[in-house]
Design brief:
Blueprint lengths: L1 H20 L13 H44 L6 H24 L8 E4 L6 H27 L7 H23 L2 E3 L3 H42 L4 H11 L8 H34 L23 H24 L6 H32 L9 H30 L5 H28 L7 H19 L3 H48 L4 H4 L2 H6 L1 H32 L1
Antiparallel strand pairs: 1-2
């Protein structure tokens, strides 16, 4: 106590001496001693606690909705008498109506409040993501139109719910696509908890729509393959095949052109609906993370590189060759595989294309990773929810293909790995695992690098720095010329040393972009050799293998599409 009094007296004496000698300096005022500052600090701490509580509550809401919907869908699969597809559709329609109400309220109410959107995340909702939402949303709308037309033709054996559900789905897709296109970058500053709950409810609804689409796709593929097997075994026995069709499907499509168009269009466009749901979930999750976020000037990127097709030659040429060859093989595969008896040679050709392409992609990714290590660009350590989500999605979506490959490896090694087709599928599975890992490392490493400035920008900054330095020092003209010459030689040396690295990164990135595009197109538009070759199916059983493939295949397609976006970011920042 006596020590505190002495220190207080000394501080007071010091304050009096300062007040008598010099005027107070307002620039050195310690604001932390004021009550207002301490009160604001406690408010900031309580604000962070409220933010965590709101995220926890909205996450629990989404978890319960997902579990409830998953229970409905699982009950429909295992006990389709008690819980029918119509019951699942009714539940999902209720969820979609609730999401529509919240989205309309956000568009007309929340986002128009004063100081509602003070900040916008420049990394969130890039143009390729929003373009994917519009593209897949358009195909999903067309899919639902085909479903309505198909159900209307078979109205005598279809329920009215099968027409109402796609109609609500069309309205939901249009509203959600408009919402994500215009507000995916918002960092909302009002009604935090209500906005978080609305976003999480929309994410849960999209996840359930994806789960239903996967299970329905499984059922359709199973019926189609079973009918094809029966047609092969009992060729010419039309009566037996017709009776089996009547057993597996409650009503068949009449022999009319319009019904066949609706049926084929529905099967062709079905994968786009699964991709649309996954893309929407990723964008909505970033919006959920940005609720209440305040972006300082340190988070605003000073460099905004644009996409320019300059200085790249070999990457586009090799990638275009891979795309053209892939399209030719895909068309030949579709012609052969859609026939009554798929030829064994078409599978050999399909897997041989992958065995040639995947090592090239892996080598390119490994070289790009080595160049990243040699380039010594600074790491971008700023908090970025979009980049964090990109990394999670790349790692999570790759598990779909990697899991399928390991199941194939076990089945093929246990049966007959020396057979030509089996050895090709085995090599394909091993190479695909290695390619996914190397590509993920390359993309993630590139996303965490600071963008490189163009040579023109660097030259301007060096000239400005040199001009400022020389103007401050007032050196002689001879010394100035010598230093400029040294700086120019140093710049030419550094640029020639770095240019080949940047050029190589752009070549590799562009090549991988085109390769991932063709590897996305082939399974998306119907090339599913895992359904057709019958090797894994005979080992694991029909139902088990179809569950594995239909959960892994959409994730694999989503991985290729998301890799394209990540590789474009690496290309631009290089």
């Amino acid at each position: 106590m006596s020590g505190n009094k002495v220190s207080r007296q000394k501080s007071c004496h010091h304050c009096k001496s300062r007040s008598t000698s010099t005027p107070p300096d307002t620039s050195t005022i310690h604001y932390e001693n004021f009550w207002l500052y301490r009160h604001c600090s406690s408010v900031q701490q309580s604000d962070r606690q409220a933010q965590k509580a709101g995220q926890l509550f909205s996450g629990l809401l989404a978890m319960n909705v997902v579990f409830l919907g998953s229970a409905f869908i699982s009950s429909m699969i295992f006990n389709h008498v008690a819980i029918t597809l119509a019951d699942v559709w009714i539940l999902l329609s209720i969820l979609k109506v609730l999401c529509l109400c919240w989205i309309i309220y956000y568009l007309l109410g929340t986002s128009r409040q004063p100081h509602a959107v003070l900040h916008r995340d420049s990394h969130a909702g890039p143009i390729w993501i929003r373009g994917s939402v519009l593209l897949f949303g358009s195909f999903s709308i067309l899919l639902n139109v085909f479903q309505i037309g198909y159900s209307a033709i078979l109205i005598q054996c279809k329920s009215r719910v099968e027409i109402v559900f796609p109609s609500i789905e069309i309205l939901f897709i249009c509203t959600q696509a408009f919402f994500l296109w215009h507000h995916s970058k918002d960092c909302i500053q009002v009604q935090h908890n209500f906005t978080r709950c609305g976003l999480m409810l929309t994410i849960a609804t999209n996840l359930l729509l994806w789960l239903l689409a996967v299970t329905n796709d499984t059922i359709h593929m199973e019926i189609e393959s079973q009918l094809r097997e029966v047609e092969q075994r009992f060729a010419g026995k039309a009566l037996f095949f017709t009776s089996l069709c009547n057993e597996t499907a409650s009503c068949t499509c009449p022999n009319t052109t319009m019904c066949k168009i609706f049926q084929k269009g529905y099967i062709l466009l079905y994968p786009f609906n699964t991709e649309y749901c996954l893309v929407c979930c990723s964008v909505l999750y970033v919006m959920w993370k940005n609720v209440g976020r305040r972006i300082t000037h340190h988070h605003v990127p000073h460099i905004k590189p644009k996409f320019k097709l300059q200085g790249v030659v070999f990457g586009p040429l090799l990638g275009a060759a891979a795309v053209i060859i892939g399209i030719c093989i895909f068309m030949m595969y579709q012609i052969q595989a859609t026939g009554s008896a798929p030829n064994r040679q078409v599978f050999v050709m399909y897997y041989s294309y992958y065995i040639v392409l995947l090592p090239l992609m892996s080598v390119g990714a490994v070289i790009g990773t080595i160049i990243h290590a040699l380039e010594k660009r600074e790491l971008d350590t700023l908090k970025n929810p979009t980049r964090s989500l990109d990394v999670i999605l790349l790692m999570g979506a790759a598990l779909g293909q990697i899991g399928m490959c390991y199941f194939s490896i076990v089945a093929l090694v246990a049966t007959d790995p020396r057979d030509l087709l089996n050895s090709l599928i085995l090599s394909y599975s091993v190479l695909l695992i290695f390619q996914n890992i190397t590509q993920n490392v390359f993309i993630i490493d590139g996303l965490h690098r600071q963008p490189s400035m163009s040579p023109g920008k660097e030259e301007e900054m060096k000239e400005e720095q040199n001009h400022e330095a020389h103007s401050q020092r007032r050196v002689s003209m001879l010394e100035l010329g010598q230093e400029i010459r040294k700086a120019s030689l140093s710049y030419i040396h550094s640029y020639s040393h770095l240019s080949w690295k940047r050029k190589a990164l752009r070549e590799i990135s562009f090549f991988l972009v085109l390769c991932n595009i063709i590897l996305w197109v082939m399974p998306t538009f119907g090339a599913h050799p895992a359904f057709e070759n019958g090797l894994e199916k005979s080992f694991y059983g029909y139902s088990t293998w179809f569950v594995i493939v239909n959960f892994g295949l959409p994730l694999g397609v989503f991985y290729r599409m998301h890799s394209v976006g990540g590789l474009l970011e690496v290309y631009i920042t290089a």
